[in-house]
Amino acid sequence: MPTRDERRAEAAKHLALVNGVFAKETAAAIESAVIYEDGDGRALELPEPAFEATTTRATTDFASNVVHRAEGKTLVVDPASFTRPGGAYEDGAFGPEQILCASSNLYPVLRGMKRAYYDANRGYQCGQLFTGRALYLEGIVFTRDGEMKAADVLVIAEPNRQRALENHRSEAECDKVLADRIEAIMHIAAAHEIETLVVGAFGCGREAGDEERTIALFKEWITAHPGAVANVVFAVPRAHFSAFDAAFGQPKKPVVQQSAPTEEEEDEGFTLDFELPEGITLRS
Q1: DSSP one-letter string for the chain
Q2: 250: pLDDT confidence band, cut at 50, 70 and 90?
Q3: Higher pLDDT, 251 or 130
Q4: Which end of the chain is more exposed for a tag (fewer CB within 10 A), N or C?
């Protein structure tokens, strides 16, 4: 795995590239950005479901890679740093947000929203639960092996349950914040008529076994709004994959095992149900 210094150098090189190649797309994304104040995302009026049902699956692949295989209008959730654009991406930090920045022109767009979005968030950390104030960005360009794919990005802070409890926030408050945050994600995606939503193990923490609340909340919303979003892909770390795959993965086809022939069947060989032409014989 690259060192922090190596990641810092790669970030500088990548930023220089996207600033030059995607300057027009970056400016357009900043110009069209929409900020949903805390609670506004959950209050959006939803259109009639555009799809017959919602298909879900889980993967351990990076969200940025999933974008390149996604169908239709795509939205990626950025579990963002609440007050710092890109969450120390330029300093070599590594995590879900930094991976998105390293694969697209997202970081210069986030920097362009510093005054309008990040500066206004200061003072509202809420014991590391943060708020549901969200930033919707259109047309972020993701690149991979020379291929380009545009997708929208929803910038929304992931509540840190462990730190919040250490800061004397109650279990009930932590549960309520996570429920509201996931409802905002799904409502905003549906309101924008997203066909494929790519989201990580939002609010699960680092350890396996913390997935139950997040999984239950996503399942509850999807069940209550079938077809509001056609596809939901959970791009999660390996520690969480088993739980998400069990909840959202497609049913596995049973493997049909053929039984070995019995001795009697082996002795019988095979028979013909028609006569061979005269002079034709079969050899064993």
Answers
A1: ---HHHHHHHHHHHHHHHHHHSHHHHHHHHHH-EEE-TTTGGGPPPPSPSSS--EEEEESS-HHHHHHH--SSEEEEEEE-SSSGGGSGGGT--SHHHHHHHTBSHHHHHHHTIIIIIHHHTT--GGGT----EEEEEEEEEEETTEEEEEEEEEEEPP-HHHHHHTT--HHHHHHHHHHHHHHHHHHHHHTT-SEEEE--TT--SSTT--HHHHHHHHHHHHHSTTSSSEEEEE--HHHHHHHHHHHSPPPPPP-PPPPPPHHHHHH----SSPPPTT-----
A2: confident
A3: 130
A4: C
Residue 204 has pLDDT above 60, yes or no: yes
Over residues 146-160, the pLDDT tens digits come to: 999 999 999 999 999
Q: Which amino acid is at 142?
A: F
If you ran DSSP here, which 8-state letter would residue 118 be given? I
Say if CB 74 and CB 198 are below 8 A apart. Answer: yes
Amino acid found at 166: E
Per domain, the residue ranges of the chain are 4-251
The yes or no reply on domain 4-251 and CATH 3.40.220.10 is yes
| Count of CB atoms situated within 10 Å of the CB of 35 | 14
SS3 content of the chain, % helix, strand, coil (to 5): 45, 15, 40
- Cβ(148)–Cβ(142) under 8 Å? yes
pTM: 0.88
- What's the chain's length in residues? 284
CA atoms of 245 and 12, how far apart (whole Å): 36
| pLDDT greater than 70 at residue 227 | yes
181 burial level (CB within 10 Å; 0-12, 13-18, 19+):
buried
